[in-house]
Structures are given as structure tokens and as C-alpha cells.
Design goal:
Length: 368
């Protein structure tokens, strides 16, 4: 009887242990099936702690992002010039803006924004001073010493402060052709031979320099002499755009008839000497012609030149005066087309305007 009781007790213990083992294994399986779900839930959430970024990396990333955002949508560069924006906020530097307006005027097309294709003109595009000031505070590398400076400071640094900026010898007017970094100038001056040269050795160089100064002086004296004559005509004129009726339409400019020196005159102008498709060229020039509209029975000996007008664009640079001489008679009432001494960028700025303002000075020479 005791043996039977002991056997039953052992069987119960064995069954209970196996049940506990099975329960434990089932529990582990349930936990394993739950864990993937919890892992998937946790994996979709952001990490509790982000990786640290150094301050230098933050600055670099911010500069790069701002530079790409504020760059011109045409040349993709950060410009130190004025920044214009279309009605939708797309940015263009002043150079690209004027070039775009000039291109479309030459093609007789409506100017549109390269990004959103909205119409743009000088009347509906505005300057963005916030962008201009932001760009001026962005860093830029010096071309000479490779150090980093603010864009608002880089011009003064490269022209006045940088020790690696290119410079010439102090005795360049005497003929020394040395050029190099500014920090090497002092060492060059100690060995430069030009301060010790005699006047006989320097006479050729000095004479060449004197010829240049004499030409400039002569030009100024000529202007003064012309202004002292009796018959002088000063006219503030406006060149307005017109187009030919040819199959290939060409753009040209004309002024209204004006009276000067008791005669009727007109000024005409053309782009790139009327070469075909001027909108496909990078460099552009403006040539003008003086036309006598009155009938005459005598010769008019005339000198004339063009200056910047008082009512033109204030941003237009000063026009270097070139004095031309022409004798008008019954058979010769038109001068040749004469180049206006302006740069290609200045020409684009003029073409981007609705009209071109200038001042014409005409002096009739006295008969001997």
C-alpha cells in the first residue's frame, strides 16, 4: 500500500513539473511573438537621442543651404550687386536681370522669369534688400590668402589689407615691371635698380609716360576750347526703340527731331552694327549716328560728343567723351555710325530700360 502511494505521489510531481515546463515554454513563445510587434512599433519612432553635431558642422551646413537658397536663378551665383525678385519671389542678380531684359527686347519677346514664367519688367520686379544684406554677411574665401571673411569686408581686404594681394613696384612709372605679392614688395624695393638709374637711362620711359599725359591733357584742353566758342548747342535727348518692317525684324533707336544751332537734327542708334541675331552674342555695343534734317546751302563744320544725361539711370556709369569732327553739306547729311564708349554690361543696362537718355554737345566751328 505504501509503495502504491509513493508511486502516485511521484507521478503527480512529474506531471506538475512537466506542466510547469510546458507553461514556461508557452509563455516564452508568447513573449517572442509579442516582441517583434513591440520592436516594429519602437522602430517607427524617432530615436530618443540624436547624434551630436559640432558647431562647425552646423555653420557649414547653414552656409551651404543659405547660399543655394539666395543664389541667382540664372547664373546660380551669389552676387554682390543688387538682387531683384519676380512677383513670385525668384531671385535674379542685377547683371542677369538686365541681360535678360536686353535679350528679350532684341528678340521682341515678353520677358519672363526663368523659373515660373511670369512676366517681369523693371516696373513689377523689386529689389530684395533682405537678401542683399544676408549675402553680405555670408563668408567668402579670399582669392589671395585663402582666409575666410565676410562678403561685405572682402573687397576692402583684397584691395588694402591682404598681404598676398598682387601689387606693382613703387617705381613702375620709371619702367620697373616687377609685380608680386604685397609682402614681397619691401624686399624688392631694397634690390630695385630703378631708383639708382641716371636720368639718361630713364629718359625713354619718361617720354613715353609724358606722351600719355599729354594726350589726356590735350583732350581736356580741346573740350575747354570748344566750350569757349560762340555757337554751342546742348541737347538732352531720349533714344526710343523701333523695329524694322523687314522679314528679319531688327531693333534700332531714334530720337525725336530737335533744334540746335538753328538746324533740325536727329540721332539714330543700332546694336552691334546691325549684325544678325544680336541676342545670341555675349558682347554688345551701341553705335550712334548724327543726321541733319534741315536743308542747307553751305557747309557746317561741326564737332560733337555724347555725355551721360541728367535724366538717365543713376546707376549708369560716366560715358568717356570722344570728340568727333564732321562737315555737313548738301550731299553729306549723315555721319558714319560711331561707337559709344561703353562696356557690354553697360550696354545691357541701357537696353533693359524703356528708353536711353543722354546729352549731346554740338559746337559749330567758326569759319577762318
Amino acid at each position: 500500500m505504501t509503495d502504491i502511494t509513493t508511486a502516485i505521489s511521484n507521478d503527480l510531481q512529474t506531471n506538475s513539473l512537466s506542466g510547469l515546463a510546458n507553461l514556461s515554454s508557452d509563455t516564452n513563445e508568447m513573449i517572442e511573438t509579442i516582441n517583434p510587434i513591440s520592436d516594429s512599433i519602437v522602430s517607427d519612432e524617432p530615436p530618443t537621442k540624436k547624434s551630436k553635431i559640432t558647431s562647425n558642422d552646423k555653420l557649414r551646413l547653414l552656409e551651404d543651404r543659405i547660399s543655394s537658397i539666395l543664389s541667382c536663378c540664372i547664373c546660380l551665383d551669389l552676387s554682390t550687386l543688387s538682387i531683384f525678385q519676380c512677383v513670385n519671389g525668384h531671385l535674379m542678380c542685377a547683371s542677369c536681370f538686365n541681360h535678360l531684359l536686353a535679350d528679350c527686347k532684341l528678340k521682341d519677346e515678353q520677358t519672363t522669369c526663368p523659373n515660373c514664367r511670369c512676366e517681369i519688367s523693371k516696373s513689377n520686379c523689386t529689389r530684395n534688400l533682405a537678401v542683399e544684406k544676408t549675402i553680405s554677411e555670408l563668408p567668402i574665401q579670399c582669392d589671395y590668402c585663402l582666409q575666410i571673411f565676410l562678403r561685405s569686408e572682402i573687397k576692402n581686404h583684397q584691395s588694402q589689407i591682404c598681404l598676398d594681394r598682387p601689387t606693382i613696384c613703387d617705381y613702375s612709372l620709371l619702367g620697373c615691371n616687377w609685380n608680386g605679392p604685397f609682402h614681397s614688395l619691401s624686399s624688392h624695393l631694397t634690390v630695385c635698380e630703378y631708383p639708382n638709374k641716371t636720368g639718361l637711362e630713364l629718359i625713354d620711359t619718361i617720354q613715353a609716360q609724358k606722351c600719355l599725359y599729354d594726350d589726356e591733357k590735350k583732350s581736356l584742353e580741346t573740350v575747354v576750347d570748344l566750350l569757349s566758342l560762340n555757337q554751342i548747342g546742348v541737347s538732352d535727348l531720349v533714344l526710343k526703340p523701333f523695329r524694322t518692317d523687314d522679314f528679319v525684324v531688327k531693333l534700332y533707336f531714334e530720337t525725336s527731331r530737335f533744334t540746335a544751332l538753328q538746324y533740325q537734327w536727329q540721332v539714330r542708334a543700332r546694336i552691334n552694327d546691325n549684325i544678325p541675331h544680336p541676342h545670341t552674342t555675349i558682347t554688345r555695343s551701341l553705335s550712334y549716328q548724327l543726321v541733319l534734317k534741315s536743308k542747307i546751302n553751305q557747309t557746317i563744320d561741326l564737332k560733337f560728343f555724347i555725355l551721360k544725361g541728367p535724366h538717365g539711370d543713376p546707376s549708369t556709369s560716366q560715358i568717356q567723351p570722344i570728340i568727333y569732327h564732321f562737315e555737313f553739306n548738301q550731299n553729306n547729311t549723315e555721319t558714319e555710325y560711331l561707337k559709344l564708349p561703353i562696356s557690354s554690361q553697360e550696354c545691357n543696362r541701357m537696353l533693359s530700360s524703356s528708353s536711353i537718355s543722354f546729352r549731346l554737345l554740338m559746337v559749330q566751328l567758326d569759319k577762318p
